[in-house]
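Figure S7 source data.
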Amino acid sequence: MNIALIAHDKKKDDLVRFSVAYQPLFQKHNLFATGTTGLRISEATGLTIHRFRSGPLGGDQEVGAMIAKNQMDAIFFFRDPLTSQPHEPDVSALVRLCDVYSIPLATNMGTAEILIRGIERGDLDWRKITGESSGTE
Ligand SMILES: O=C(CO)COP(=O)(O)O
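Tokens for the predicted 1,3-dihydroxyacetonephosphate complex:
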């Protein structure tokens, strides 16, 4: 599956810890990330990650483009709800596209735990069966 990893600055440590904990599972998938998040995670885990631009420079929109092209299966986006972001419209657009295309989106650690276990269990395999998946493992 194609999975995107994104975190706002104050949530990056959380997503790095999460990625370290679930590294064995993540390595079975194709990983994508916004620039700084991807660098932090790849340094901490050794995972191979396709890095887009940094979020404020268009990275969120690049992930959104993959959603629109049916190339993204799940997104872990640890948002910071207490800090305003200069690129808030891009953040909203990404969340909106997840809703438009019914793409699973975890915006905090609690939901992320459920989503990652669901992926491990095969709960998203319906996307392959219905042809809605990116088609990759
Ligand atoms: O701003 C972001 C998401 O909106 C994340 O971007 P970076 O991973 O480049 O910090």
